[in-house]
């Protein structure tokens, strides 16, 4: 049986880096809400975090990431337009998840 | 025994690499679809562990190009993704994936067991011998 606890430090380090990138992409989207690269970056990071947090047993965080991934898929496909309120919500959720991991 | 891991998540890549190396595999990796194809063409791996959502080319595009390339047409591919829609799994199988798994449903021990069944050491040794 694989002991995943040995990877906890790497996971936390990687999560911190992912949230730094999410914050940077949010800054870009505040200036340009249609920036496709920034939208894909956030989608990709929440998508990755969904898997890695599930692997490490953080089910609640994985579910939050899944919800945000879904939202950004809708943004990517044009079903949802990014507003300042949505971006603020993403930033707040990212900060809350980051807080839980500290 | 060579496994090419196509994964852009640095954490998952480190975990998969470490566990596969412990299991006796030689591991190389690529974090975008274009690199995956370039590396696979340069040194044909015994098996590819393929993510779908990757930069530059996604896993579906990689799989489609691989199956059109006679050198990579029969290389075993396990798709390991977080895309949970049934149509994504069907699409990957149609493109030639040997298996399709959702990351959160697949624990590492089962993954390594599955890799052993698709790329057993004897097969890899035979392939290396026939290339010499």
Number of helices of chain A: 4
Instruction: Please summarize the sheet with the most strands of chain B.
Output: 5 strands, parallel
CATH evolutionary superfamily of chain B: Response regulator
CATH first level of chain A: which class?
A: Mainly Alpha
CATH architecture field of chain B:
3-Layer(aba) Sandwich
What's the arrangement of strands in the largest beta sheet of chain B? 2-1-3-4-5
At the first level of CATH, the class of chain B is: Alpha Beta
Level of helix content of chain B? 40-55%
Oligomer state of the chains in this structure: heterodimer
Strand content of chain A: under 5%
| Outline of chain B | globular
How much is the average pLDDT of chain A?
A: 90
Give the biggest beta sheet of chain A. none
Key attributes of the depicted protein:
A: 102 residues, mainly alpha, Four Helix Bundle (Hemerythrin (Met), subunit A), 78% helix, elongated, B: 132 residues, alpha/beta, Rossmann fold, five-stranded parallel β-sheet, 5 strands
């Amino acid at each position: 049986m694989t002991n995943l606890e040995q990877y906890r430090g790497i996971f936390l380090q990687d999560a911190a880096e992912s949230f730094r990138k999410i914050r940077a992409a949010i800054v870009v989207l505040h200036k340009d809400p249609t920036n496709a690269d920034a939208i894909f970056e956030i989608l990709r990071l929440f998508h990755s975090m969904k898997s890695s947090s599930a692997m490490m047993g953080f089910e609640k965080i994985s579910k939050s990431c899944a919800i945000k991934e879904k939202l950004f898929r809708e943004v990517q496909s044009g079903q949802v337009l990014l507003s300042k309120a949505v971006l603020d919500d993403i930033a707040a959720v990212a900060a809350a998840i980051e807080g839980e991991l500290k | 025994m060579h496994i090419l891991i196509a994964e852009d998540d640095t954490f998952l890549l480190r975990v998969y690499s470490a566990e596969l190396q412990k299991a006796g595999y030689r591991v190389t990796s690529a974090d975008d679809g274009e690199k995956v194809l370039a590396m696979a063409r340069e040194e044909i791996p015994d098996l590819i562990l393929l993510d779908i959502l990757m930069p530059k080319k996604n896993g579906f595009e990689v799989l489609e190009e691989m199956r059109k390339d006679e050198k990579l047409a029969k290389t075993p591919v396990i798709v390991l993704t977080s895309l949970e829609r049934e149509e994504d799994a069907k699409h990957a199988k149609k493109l030639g994936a040997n298996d399709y798994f959702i990351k959160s449903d697949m624990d590492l021990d089962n993954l390594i067991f599955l890799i052993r069944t698709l790329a057993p050491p004897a097969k890899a040794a035979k392939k290396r011998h026939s290339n010499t």
